Amino acid sequence: MKLTILALALSTASAFVAPSARSAARVSVELEAKKSVADLTEAELKGKKVLIRCDLNVPLKDGVIGDDTRIRASVPTVKYLLEQGASVAMCSHLGRPKDGPEDKFSLGPVSKRMSECLGTDVTMAPDCIGDEVSKIVGAMKEGEAVLLENTRFYKEEEKNEAAFVEKLAAPFDLFVNDAFGTAHRAHASTEGVTKFLSPSVSGYLLAKELQYLAGAVDEPVRPLAAIVGGSKVSSKITVLESLINKCDKVIVGGGMTFTFLKAMGKPVGSSLVEDDFLDTAKAAMKLAEEKGCELIFPNEILVADKFAEDADTKVVSADEIPDGWMGLDNGPAATTMIQEKLADCKTVIWNGPMGVFEMDVFAKGTFAICDTLAELTEKGSITIIGGGDSVAAVEKAGLAEKMSHISTGGGASLELLEGKVLPGVAALDEA
Q1: What are the residue numbers of the active site?
Q2: Kind of pairing between the strands at 145-147 and 87-91
Q3: pLDDT score for 4
Q4: C or N terminus of the chain, fewer CB within 10 Å?
């Protein structure tokens, strides 16, 4: 994939550009050229009805939003469209409703928070399609915003059914996709509407995600390192293989470590191991050797006698995990070794924790990585947190603002790092 990302995408979304944006600017990205909102003139936007796909799938309990990061991340593009005189209707899914509308999955609370973030009223539509929605959109004046109700209240959304797609697109003149977190899905509101609305372009957030994630592996500032953690080799093997092909160094951590250690013939005690993937681990190690990629494993492990906060723990060599003990975090020597390996790296991608960081006793290895990446960012390196638990870790550590880029998409970021084409991106207009 080749994409040309305009600098304007980064400058307009300045609220979400981390301190090392100056470093990211050095990344020359040439992916498949796609048109963005930056390519549209005021004349093309003024007075137009714009459908924008946002990722507003926020944690919601009893009508209270647990984390509004995704709402705030959507603001730069929406605000830009409103300032250009467009009328904007945002659409998104929230949760996984099963059989039609459910109050607990309504986007109502999101509309209130979005109003606060935008500094203007956001009308909450009662649906995402239908005559009433068409009337609301038709009556909108320039610079006004509305939030459509949860698109997943219709099963046709995920099935990308043409009749539903046509109804969703009907009231609008053009489409903007700013939902990186769902760009890997060919759903009605991500891919289908592009067949009915032209132009169909990317928003600033989507462009920024591609700038960092795709740019980091396709045109990196080297040395390029990737830290791949998490519990299972099976869920990360394709991204691991892709990164081995492109990186100078790949650091393996988390539960998947023990499948590799066992594949090397080392004792792993009662640690998590995927025996069906021992050959896969061996193949990955062979690939790293062939590609000249330094594949790095922790040399010291924090082990416990049970999976619990009150477990007895001790630090052992990665070669000497005793029977009956399970590895749940890196030991101090492993942390030091990883810090040394990262010291000269100019680009670092992190996806997956080093241990069970949700429990304080097993969190030191993961939070040490957070600290190290924050320090590297300060020194001018590009640091990219590739979604999922890694994002939760840097946020819990209070260091999210110290990273170059925090990805809003877990599954999408993995697929992009794997080199896959994202349907929600591929469907957009060529620049």
Answers
A1: 70, 232, 388, 411
A2: parallel
A3: 35
A4: C
CA dihedral 8, 14, 16, 22 (to 10 degrees): 80
Residue 73 one-letter amino acid: A
Pick from 30, 73, 25, 42: which is nearest to 387 by CA? Answer: 73
Q: What would the two tokens of residue 265 be?
A: 């013939």
Best CATH choice for the domain 34-206 from the list 3.40.50.300, 2.30.40.10, 3.40.640.10, 3.40.50.1260: 3.40.50.1260
Q: Characterize 167-179 residue by residue with b for buried, 16 or more Cβ atoms within 10 angstroms of its Cβ, and e for exposed.
A: bbbbbbbbbbbbb
- pLDDT at position 173, please? 97
CATH tag, 217-417: 3.40.50.1260
The pLDDT tens digits of the residues spanning 331-364 come to: 999 999 999 999 999 999 999 999 999 999 999 9
Q: In the chain, which residues have pLDDT < 50?
A: 1-32
How much is the pLDDT for 232?
84
Domain ranges for the chain = 34-206, 217-417
